[in-house]
Amino acid sequence: MADFRAIADALKAGNAPKVKELVEAAVEEGVEPSKIVNEALIVGMGEIGVLFKNNEVYVPEVLIAARAMHAGLDVVKPLMADQDVATAGKVVLGTVKGDLHDIGKNLVGMMLEGAGFEVIDLGIDVPPHKFVEAVKKDKPHIVGMSALLTTTMPAMKQTIEAIEAAGLRDEVKIMVGGAPVTQNFSDEIGADGYAPDAASAADLAKELVG
Ligand code: B1M
Question: How many domains is the chain built from?
């Protein structure tokens, strides 16, 4: 039987090969990929977050755990994205300027792909003008921004302002998310929607294009 606790523990220990092996075994057993993500990988990462907050582990341990998380995500990603051809719409996605956190953004991207969206991932530390360029070039239905730091949340507002200044605001819907982001903040900066987690982000994207 799939051992979610063992996967979370291997992730916390930063043991990427073990995470990969256990996730592959769970997949082979027929466990739903989203269950592996939500009940093992996100749980392990959440626990590392608590240890980090309490100064019980430091940046290197978190980085190694993040790498182990990616090793697990790499196994499930193709399985979550392959059900559908991308017909639901196009999303330009990125972590805003100054912010290097990408695990949540990557999960959102995976869930969007799983829901049939084509995702153009601009990566991390994406300045407002890069979002604007992507809107011009790729003509997405939605721009999705992620921020994990209170200090980088203002970059979401700056990005919306840059999209407005370029005269493109009416051409895209804008959705935001990330641990410190709230519905109130989303309303304040004039985004079209906020989602608290990756699964809700996919639902929100469907609503926004619907
Ligand atoms: Co960072 N870090 N970090 N960190 N880090 C946090 C965010 C922090 C809360 C830890 C803490 O103190 N408790 C804290 C922020 C405090 C604050 O601003 N309020 C913090 C800090 C302070 C820092 C540094 C400043 C530390 C330092 O250097 N002294 C530094 C900043 C670097 C920078 O960005 N400029 C830093 C660095 C790092 C690492 C590089 C070591 C690493 C990132 C590795 C990587 O991403 N590749 C890291 C990590 C891993 C974390 C924690 C531990 C985990 C984040 C994570 O991946 N969570 C985090 C503590 C925590 O959150 N518990 C922390 C798992 C992920 C699945 O959740 O990203 O929330 P999350 O995504 C969710 C939802 O938020 C939502 O869906 C996702 C899936 O359900 N979502 C969206 C996310 N984006 C969305 C977009 C949407 C919709 C939903 O629409 C578009």
Answer: 2
